[in-house]
Amino acid sequence: MLQHVPFEGPAQIAHWAKRHGHEMRVTHLYAGDPPPGLDDFDGLVVMGGPMGVNDEDEHSWLRPEKVCIEAALAAGRRLVGVCLGAQLIAQALGARVSRNDQPEIGWFPIELTAEAAAAPCCAGLPSRFDALHWHGDRFELPAGALHLARSAACDSQGFLYQGRVLGLQCHLEAVPGSVASLCEACADELIPGPFVQRAETIMAAPDTAYTLIHRVLEHWLDAVV
Questions:
Q1: Residue 93 neighbours by CB under 8 Å, 6+ apart
Q2: In terms of Cα–Cα distance, which of 87, 160, 88 is closest to 117?
Q3: Is residue 124 classed as helix, strand or coil in its secondary structure?
Q4: Burial category of 211 from C-beta neighbours within 10 Å (exposed 0-12, middle 13-18, buried 19 and up)
Q5: Which long-range contacts (CB under 8 A, 24 or more apart) does 27-36 make?
Q6: Per-residue pLDDT tens for 1-23?
Q7: pLDDT tens digits, residue range 124-170?
Protein backbone atom coordinates (compact mmCIF):
# COMPACT_ATOMS: atom_id res chain seq x y z
CA MET A 1 0.00 0.00 0.00
CA LEU A 2 1.28 3.45 -0.93
CA GLN A 3 0.55 6.10 1.72
CA HIS A 4 1.09 9.81 1.06
CA VAL A 5 0.42 11.40 4.46
CA PRO A 6 0.28 9.98 8.00
CA PHE A 7 -3.43 10.79 8.43
CA GLU A 8 -4.76 8.92 5.37
CA GLY A 9 -4.26 5.22 5.96
CA PRO A 10 -6.15 2.20 4.60
CA ALA A 11 -8.88 2.26 7.28
CA GLN A 12 -11.61 -0.21 6.23
CA ILE A 13 -9.45 -1.58 3.41
CA ALA A 14 -7.08 -2.93 6.06
CA HIS A 15 -9.95 -4.63 7.90
CA TRP A 16 -11.14 -6.22 4.64
CA ALA A 17 -7.62 -7.40 3.78
CA LYS A 18 -7.10 -8.99 7.20
CA ARG A 19 -10.43 -10.86 7.04
CA HIS A 20 -9.51 -12.26 3.65
CA GLY A 21 -6.01 -13.31 4.67
CA HIS A 22 -4.17 -10.71 2.57
CA GLU A 23 -0.89 -9.37 3.94
CA MET A 24 -0.74 -5.58 3.65
CA ARG A 25 2.61 -3.83 3.72
CA VAL A 26 2.59 -0.05 3.97
CA THR A 27 5.05 2.13 2.06
CA HIS A 28 5.24 5.56 3.73
CA LEU A 29 6.28 7.63 0.72
CA TYR A 30 6.10 10.90 2.65
CA ALA A 31 8.67 9.52 5.11
CA GLY A 32 11.16 8.52 2.41
CA ASP A 33 10.23 4.89 1.82
CA PRO A 34 10.99 3.88 -1.78
CA PRO A 35 8.11 2.38 -3.81
CA PRO A 36 8.08 -1.42 -3.84
CA GLY A 37 9.34 -3.41 -6.78
CA LEU A 38 7.01 -5.56 -8.88
CA ASP A 39 8.25 -8.71 -7.18
CA ASP A 40 7.21 -7.31 -3.82
CA PHE A 41 3.44 -7.26 -4.33
CA ASP A 42 0.55 -9.01 -6.07
CA GLY A 43 -1.77 -6.00 -5.80
CA LEU A 44 -1.31 -2.31 -5.11
CA VAL A 45 -3.47 0.04 -3.01
CA VAL A 46 -2.80 3.75 -3.53
CA MET A 47 -4.26 6.03 -0.87
CA GLY A 48 -5.22 9.71 -0.84
CA GLY A 49 -3.56 12.94 0.21
CA PRO A 50 -3.95 16.71 -0.03
CA MET A 51 -1.32 17.12 -2.74
CA GLY A 52 -2.06 17.02 -6.48
CA VAL A 53 -0.84 14.54 -9.06
CA ASN A 54 1.52 17.11 -10.59
CA ASP A 55 2.99 18.49 -7.35
CA GLU A 56 6.31 16.79 -8.04
CA ASP A 57 8.42 19.83 -7.16
CA GLU A 58 7.00 19.85 -3.62
CA HIS A 59 6.83 16.05 -3.30
CA SER A 60 9.65 14.44 -5.26
CA TRP A 61 8.48 10.92 -4.33
CA LEU A 62 5.58 11.37 -6.77
CA ARG A 63 7.95 10.67 -9.68
CA PRO A 64 9.06 7.17 -8.60
CA GLU A 65 5.55 6.46 -7.38
CA LYS A 66 4.17 7.12 -10.86
CA VAL A 67 6.78 4.75 -12.31
CA CYS A 68 5.65 2.10 -9.82
CA ILE A 69 1.98 2.53 -10.74
CA GLU A 70 2.70 2.43 -14.47
CA ALA A 71 4.76 -0.73 -14.05
CA ALA A 72 2.01 -2.39 -12.00
CA LEU A 73 -0.57 -1.57 -14.66
CA ALA A 74 1.66 -2.86 -17.44
CA ALA A 75 2.33 -6.08 -15.51
CA GLY A 76 -1.38 -6.81 -15.11
CA ARG A 77 -1.44 -6.32 -11.36
CA ARG A 78 -4.63 -5.51 -9.49
CA LEU A 79 -4.83 -1.92 -8.24
CA VAL A 80 -7.13 0.07 -5.96
CA GLY A 81 -6.87 3.85 -5.77
CA VAL A 82 -8.63 6.24 -3.39
CA CYS A 83 -8.95 9.98 -4.08
CA LEU A 84 -5.38 11.06 -4.99
CA GLY A 85 -4.60 7.39 -5.59
CA ALA A 86 -7.43 7.10 -8.11
CA GLN A 87 -6.24 10.28 -9.81
CA LEU A 88 -2.69 8.91 -10.10
CA ILE A 89 -3.97 5.66 -11.58
CA ALA A 90 -6.28 7.50 -13.99
CA GLN A 91 -3.38 9.68 -15.12
CA ALA A 92 -1.21 6.58 -15.65
CA LEU A 93 -4.00 5.21 -17.85
CA GLY A 94 -3.89 8.36 -20.00
CA ALA A 95 -6.82 10.25 -18.46
CA ARG A 96 -6.71 13.94 -17.57
CA VAL A 97 -6.69 15.09 -13.95
CA SER A 98 -7.78 18.66 -13.23
CA ARG A 99 -9.41 20.92 -10.67
CA ASN A 100 -13.02 20.11 -9.92
CA ASP A 101 -15.47 22.98 -10.41
CA GLN A 102 -15.61 23.34 -6.63
CA PRO A 103 -14.37 21.47 -3.58
CA GLU A 104 -16.47 18.56 -2.37
CA ILE A 105 -15.97 17.86 1.34
CA GLY A 106 -18.47 16.03 3.52
CA TRP A 107 -21.22 13.46 3.22
CA PHE A 108 -23.06 13.85 -0.11
CA PRO A 109 -25.00 11.37 -2.27
CA ILE A 110 -23.45 9.46 -5.13
CA GLU A 111 -25.44 7.44 -7.63
CA LEU A 112 -24.48 4.53 -9.81
CA THR A 113 -24.40 5.19 -13.53
CA ALA A 114 -26.83 3.26 -15.71
CA GLU A 115 -23.92 1.25 -17.10
CA ALA A 116 -22.68 0.34 -13.63
CA ALA A 117 -26.14 -0.53 -12.31
CA ALA A 118 -26.49 -3.08 -15.11
CA ALA A 119 -23.03 -4.59 -14.55
CA PRO A 120 -22.38 -7.73 -12.46
CA CYS A 121 -19.91 -5.83 -10.26
CA CYS A 122 -22.78 -3.71 -8.91
CA ALA A 123 -25.38 -6.44 -8.47
CA GLY A 124 -27.33 -5.94 -5.26
CA LEU A 125 -25.88 -2.50 -4.49
CA PRO A 126 -28.06 0.55 -3.80
CA SER A 127 -28.35 2.90 -6.76
CA ARG A 128 -27.86 5.97 -4.54
CA PHE A 129 -26.27 6.48 -1.12
CA ASP A 130 -24.30 9.03 0.90
CA ALA A 131 -20.51 8.80 0.66
CA LEU A 132 -17.71 10.75 2.29
CA HIS A 133 -15.90 13.18 0.00
CA TRP A 134 -12.73 15.21 0.51
CA HIS A 135 -11.25 16.51 -2.73
CA GLY A 136 -10.62 19.54 -4.90
CA ASP A 137 -9.42 17.72 -8.03
CA ARG A 138 -11.10 15.20 -10.30
CA PHE A 139 -10.11 12.58 -12.88
CA GLU A 140 -11.60 11.99 -16.30
CA LEU A 141 -12.69 8.46 -17.10
CA PRO A 142 -9.84 6.35 -18.52
CA ALA A 143 -10.54 4.98 -21.99
CA GLY A 144 -12.27 1.61 -21.81
CA ALA A 145 -13.15 1.91 -18.11
CA LEU A 146 -16.59 1.33 -16.62
CA HIS A 147 -17.94 4.55 -15.11
CA LEU A 148 -19.20 3.49 -11.69
CA ALA A 149 -20.74 6.55 -10.05
CA ARG A 150 -21.26 10.32 -10.04
CA SER A 151 -22.33 13.02 -7.59
CA ALA A 152 -23.90 16.45 -8.02
CA ALA A 153 -20.52 18.14 -7.53
CA CYS A 154 -18.34 15.68 -9.47
CA ASP A 155 -19.38 13.32 -12.24
CA SER A 156 -16.29 11.11 -11.82
CA GLN A 157 -16.69 9.23 -8.55
CA GLY A 158 -15.39 5.83 -9.58
CA PHE A 159 -14.23 3.56 -12.36
CA LEU A 160 -13.41 -0.09 -12.94
CA TYR A 161 -10.80 -0.87 -15.58
CA GLN A 162 -10.34 -4.36 -17.08
CA GLY A 163 -12.01 -5.80 -13.99
CA ARG A 164 -8.74 -5.45 -12.03
CA VAL A 165 -8.30 -1.70 -11.41
CA LEU A 166 -10.66 0.18 -9.10
CA GLY A 167 -10.49 3.96 -8.79
CA LEU A 168 -12.62 5.79 -6.23
CA GLN A 169 -12.79 9.56 -5.88
CA CYS A 170 -14.89 9.31 -2.73
CA HIS A 171 -13.73 7.78 0.55
CA LEU A 172 -15.67 4.55 0.98
CA GLU A 173 -12.86 3.27 3.21
CA ALA A 174 -13.55 5.93 5.85
CA VAL A 175 -14.05 5.00 9.51
CA PRO A 176 -14.85 7.43 12.34
CA GLY A 177 -11.20 7.64 13.38
CA SER A 178 -9.93 8.39 9.87
CA VAL A 179 -12.63 11.04 9.42
CA ALA A 180 -11.61 12.74 12.67
CA SER A 181 -7.98 12.71 11.50
CA LEU A 182 -8.95 14.34 8.20
CA CYS A 183 -11.01 17.01 9.93
CA GLU A 184 -8.07 17.84 12.19
CA ALA A 185 -5.25 17.71 9.63
CA CYS A 186 -7.15 19.48 6.83
CA ALA A 187 -9.26 21.90 8.85
CA ASP A 188 -8.01 24.78 6.68
CA GLU A 189 -9.86 23.28 3.70
CA LEU A 190 -13.26 23.56 5.38
CA ILE A 191 -14.11 26.86 3.71
CA PRO A 192 -17.89 27.34 3.45
CA GLY A 193 -19.29 26.39 0.06
CA PRO A 194 -22.22 24.59 -1.55
CA PHE A 195 -20.49 21.22 -1.20
CA VAL A 196 -18.41 21.76 1.93
CA GLN A 197 -19.79 20.74 5.31
CA ARG A 198 -18.67 21.79 8.78
CA ALA A 199 -16.39 19.43 10.70
CA GLU A 200 -19.12 18.86 13.28
CA THR A 201 -21.53 17.74 10.55
CA ILE A 202 -18.97 15.47 8.93
CA MET A 203 -18.09 13.73 12.18
CA ALA A 204 -21.74 13.35 13.21
CA ALA A 205 -22.46 10.73 10.54
CA PRO A 206 -24.30 7.73 12.03
CA ASP A 207 -22.92 4.21 12.16
CA THR A 208 -25.37 3.21 9.42
CA ALA A 209 -23.60 5.56 6.98
CA TYR A 210 -20.30 3.77 7.54
CA THR A 211 -21.94 0.34 7.33
CA LEU A 212 -23.34 1.20 3.91
CA ILE A 213 -20.17 2.62 2.36
CA HIS A 214 -18.19 -0.35 3.68
CA ARG A 215 -20.68 -2.72 2.11
CA VAL A 216 -20.21 -1.05 -1.29
CA LEU A 217 -16.44 -0.83 -0.92
CA GLU A 218 -16.02 -4.47 0.00
CA HIS A 219 -18.33 -5.57 -2.79
CA TRP A 220 -16.07 -3.79 -5.29
CA LEU A 221 -12.87 -5.02 -3.62
CA ASP A 222 -14.19 -8.57 -3.88
CA ALA A 223 -14.93 -7.98 -7.56
CA VAL A 224 -11.39 -6.78 -8.24
CA VAL A 225 -9.60 -9.43 -6.19
A1: 73, 142, 143, 145, 161, 165
A2: 160
A3: coil
A4: exposed
A5: 27/1, 27/2, 27/3, 28/3, 29/2, 29/3, 29/4, 29/61, 29/65, 30/3, 30/4, 30/5, 30/6, 30/59, 30/61, 32/61, 34/64, 35/2, 35/61, 35/64, 35/65, 35/67, 35/68, 36/68
A6: 999 999 999 999 999 999 999 99
A7: 999 999 999 999 999 999 999 999 999 999 999 999 999 999 999 99
